């Protein structure tokens, strides 16, 4: 891909590639136990922005990794993300009825199945990282990917962020506390996605990896701020879910603490910092730049 490529076309192609990788690794709907596998495919293949998978591809491309070697880690990050959404939607969590314009997993199937779907997709993510033959063949790089995704998914990452989020309902948080929550809940997996792409190039310099990591940290927070803004003013038809869920659950958000205009300003600043972090990378990093633009302007 070159700078002459149309950004929307490139991002759409990478989303389709991620969908194909997911379809390939998910068990067929008629594989025993069929009910669980149908629910897994329903939850993982039901659309979505595929931001995390696209970040894996974009970061890998930026450092010279062929796309075929990136399908595995891209699929793994999407499986972790899909599992987190299924569990987040459960009555004990955010209690949502809609996801991407369709009934959530526990509504389309049942609550017990939704719990098992999340468990199974999390396990499958690590199976993919350990079994995809097309991925980088260096054992240290593979093990590093497993470690990175495990840390980003667990108590020191996404799951920990969700615990902080649940504990914050009805409370007033400082801006620093809110940022800490989202660095874990949303930012950790976005950061891991970029790192998995970078780690697919074992010869990558420490300086280049740090640039990509800085980009990912800024992008993760910008993504969450935009998410909070959309929960206030987004179009439910485009969002594929109800608007105002955070307010209804009395959750602290960037707009509730900073106000809408200041939240927009903060997101723009983080976008600028993300782009500046990779300013001296080659044009092969343009897809990362396009993703940053998409995140700050997205309407869904």
Structure report:
- Helix 10 (206-233) runs parallel beside helix 15.
- It is built from 15 helices and two strands.
- With 300 residues, the chain is mainly alpha-helical.
- The relative contact order is 0.13.
- It has helices at residues 7-25, 34-44, 51-62, 71-88, 105-108, 111-131, 139-153, 158-167, 175-199, 206-233, 236-239, 245-248, 254-258, 260-277, 286-297, and strands at residues 98-99, 102-103.
- The model has no long low-confidence stretch (mean pLDDT 92).
- The protein has one domain: Farnesyl Diphosphate Synthase.
Instruction: Give the termini separation.
Output: 26 Å
Taken in chain order, the helices and strands follow as HHHHEEHHHHHHHHHHH
Fourth-level CATH superfamily: Farnesyl Diphosphate Synthase
Low-confidence stretches: none
CATH domain class:
Mainly Alpha
Strand coverage percent: under 5%
Tell me the CATH architecture.
Orthogonal Bundle
Q: Helix fraction? A: 55-70%
Total domains: 1
Find the structural class using helix and strand composition: mainly alpha
Q: What is the residue-mean pLDDT, rounded to a whole number?
A: 92
Sketch the major β-sheet: 2 strands, antiparallel
CATH topology: Farnesyl Diphosphate Synthase
- Shape, principal axes of CA atoms: globular
Number of beta-strand segments: 2
SS field, number of helical segments: 15
Q: Give the spatial strand order of the biggest sheet.
A: 1-2
CA-atom Rg in angstroms:
18 Å
């Amino acid at each position: 891909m070159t700078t002459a490529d149309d950004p929307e076309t490139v991002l759409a192609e990478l989303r389709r590639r991620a969908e194909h990788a997911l379809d390939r690794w998910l068990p067929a709907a008629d594989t025993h136990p069929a009910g669980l596998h149908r629910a897994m495919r329903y939850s993982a293949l039901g659309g979505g922005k595929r931001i995390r998978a696209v970040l894996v591809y974009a970061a890998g491309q930026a450092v010279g990794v062929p796309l075929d070697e990136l399908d595995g880690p891209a699929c793994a990050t999407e499986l972790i993300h899909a599992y987190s959404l299924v569990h987040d939607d459960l009555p004990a969590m955010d209690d949502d009825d809609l996801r991407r314009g369709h009934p959530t997993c526990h509504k389309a199937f049942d609550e017990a199945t939704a719990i098992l779907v999340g468990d199974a997709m999390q396990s499958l993510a690590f199976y993919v990282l350990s079994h995809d033959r097309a991925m980088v063949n260096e054992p240290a790089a593979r093990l590093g990917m497993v470690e990175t995704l495990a840390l980003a998914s667990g108590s020191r990452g996404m799951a920990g962020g969700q615990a902080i989020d649940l504990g914050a309902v009805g409370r007033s948080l400082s801006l620093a506390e809110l940022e800490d929550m989202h660095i874990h809940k949303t930012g950790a997996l976005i950061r891991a996605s970029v790192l998995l792409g970078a780690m697919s190039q074992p010869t990558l310099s420490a300086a280049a990896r740090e640039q990509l990591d800085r980009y990912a940290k800024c992008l993760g927070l910008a993504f969450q701020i935009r998410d909070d803004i959309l929960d206030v003013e987004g179009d439910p038809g485009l969002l594929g879910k109800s608007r105002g869920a955070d307010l209804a659950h009395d959750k602290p958000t960037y707009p509730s603490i900073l106000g809408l205009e200041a939240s927009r300003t903060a997101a723009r600043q983080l976008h600028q910092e993300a782009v500046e972090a990779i300013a001296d990378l080659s044009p092969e990093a343009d897809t990362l730049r396009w993703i940053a633009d998409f995140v700050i302007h997205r309407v869904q």
